């Protein structure tokens, strides 16, 4: 194989040779095909090189190859440039004094140096780091319209990747899934249907809320829940005259009818705020007053204080309370107040994640 003229040598001192480390690169030939012309840089995806040689110990369980192979399949040549994705041309293993190295072969990508300078001097760091922010095909509306943006653009990008749906829950071994309460399609005169709303939170726990249907439409009503997180704590919140058909509304992934409740525990006109949407935290009817007796969970993550650690005390297990915990505990309260049947509370205990 023809030997190319070196631009400069890359020599690692002998004392730095170690098993699992970087491969000492000179003007070698790799895979009987690739001749080294120069070393451009080193790092993870930050290196734009024609031949990338991973450390030997990182080559064993590297995810880079599988990711690049997946992207190469999803984005065929001719579209990858538009999507600003690294295209994998080849890959192979190379044996050196420090072990076996995984070698990746992407095309050489040269940055636009002129765009990064002003009269020969570099731009400030933020200019170089924020451009172009996201590949063109994955850009959120804020970027396309050149509006102010924040970390929420990452959620848009994730959605554009068309990831597969979450895996199904593992099969129940030795027991059957609990059945929801048997609820008639129509209730007694003046009664209100209370439902459990489940918002898909995968890979985290689902968010739970109560739903009290209005008599006018099943998708308009009152949502009661504990909103927040285990790190900062939760607060009790009521969404009055909430309409799932509104473009700004978040629709649940599952609605489970729980029970028809006697109308004496509700005041629809007040609960629906005379037909105007609002957020509230003050109970105004018997049902709301009952669930309000159960306080929203406080923060239950990282509750071991530095003082306790300094004193050598062993950390104790902390039972995390969340929106589901509040629903289950408030269901017990509704049973004590003779509003819910015991069957409803038992079911909610059984399905809590």
From TrEMBL:
Q: What InterPro entries would the database entry show?
A: DUF6540, Kinase-like_dom_sf, SRPK
Acyltransferase: present as a keyword of the record? Answer: no
**Which keywords accompany this UniProt record?**
ATP-binding, Kinase, Nucleotide-binding, Serine/threonine-protein kinase, Transferase
- State a GO cellular component annotated for this protein: nucleus
Enzyme class name: transferase
Entry GO MF terms: ATP binding; protein serine/threonine kinase activity
Name the domain of life: Eukaryota
Q: Which reaction does it catalyse?
A: L-seryl-[protein] + ATP = O-phospho-L-seryl-[protein] + ADP + H(+); L-threonyl-[protein] + ATP = O-phospho-L-threonyl-[protein] + ADP + H(+)
Name its GO BP terms in alphabetical order. regulation of mRNA processing; spliceosomal complex assembly
Name of one Pfam family that matches: DUF6540
This entry's Enzyme Commission designation comes to 2.7.11.1
Protein name in UniProt: non-specific serine/threonine protein kinase
UniProt organism field: Aspergillus transmontanensis
């Amino acid at each position: 194989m023809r030997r190319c003229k070196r631009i400069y040598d890359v020599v690692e001192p002998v004392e730095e040779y170690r098993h699992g480390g970087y491969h000492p690169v000179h003007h070698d030939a790799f895979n009987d095909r690739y001749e080294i012309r120069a070393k451009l840089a080193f790092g993870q995806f930050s290196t734009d090189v024609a031949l990338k040689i991973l450390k030997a110990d990182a080559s064993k369980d590297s995810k880079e190859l599988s990711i690049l192979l997946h992207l190469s399949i999803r984005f065929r040549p001719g579209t990858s440039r538009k999507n600003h994705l690294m295209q994998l041309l080849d890959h192979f293993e190379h044996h050196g004094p420090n072990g076996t190295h995984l070698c990746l072969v992407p095309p050489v990508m040269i940055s636009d140096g002129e765009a990064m300078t002003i009269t020969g001097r570099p731009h400030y760091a933020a200019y170089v780091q924020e451009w172009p922010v996201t590949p063109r095909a994955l850009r959120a509306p804020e970027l396309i319209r050149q509006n102010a943006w924040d970390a929420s653009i990452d959620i848009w990008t994730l959605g554009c990747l068309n990831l597969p749906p979450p895996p199904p829950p593992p099969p129940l071994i030795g027991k059957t899934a609990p059945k929801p309460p048997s609820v008639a399609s129509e209730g007694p005169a003046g009664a209100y249907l209370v439902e459990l709303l489940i918002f898909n939170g995968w890979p985290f726990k689902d968010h739970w809320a109560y739903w009290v249907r209005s008599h006018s439409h099943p998708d308009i009503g009152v949502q009661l829940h504990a909103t927040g997180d285990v790190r900062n704590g939760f607060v009790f919140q009521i969404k009055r005259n909430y309409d799932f058909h509104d473009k700004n509304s978040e629709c649940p992934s599952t609605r489970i009818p729980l029970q028809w409740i006697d109308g004496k525990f509700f005041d629809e006109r007040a609960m629906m705020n005379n037909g105007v949407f609002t957020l509230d935290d003050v109970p105004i009817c018997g049902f709301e007053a009952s669930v309000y007796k159960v306080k929203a969970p406080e923060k239950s993550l990282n509750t071991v204080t530095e003082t306790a650690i300094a004193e050598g005390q062993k950390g104790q297990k902390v039972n995390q309370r969340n929106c589901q915990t509040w629903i289950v505990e408030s269901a017990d309260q509704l049973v004590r107040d003779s509003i819910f049947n015991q069957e409803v509370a038992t079911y909610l205990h059984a399905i809590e994640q």
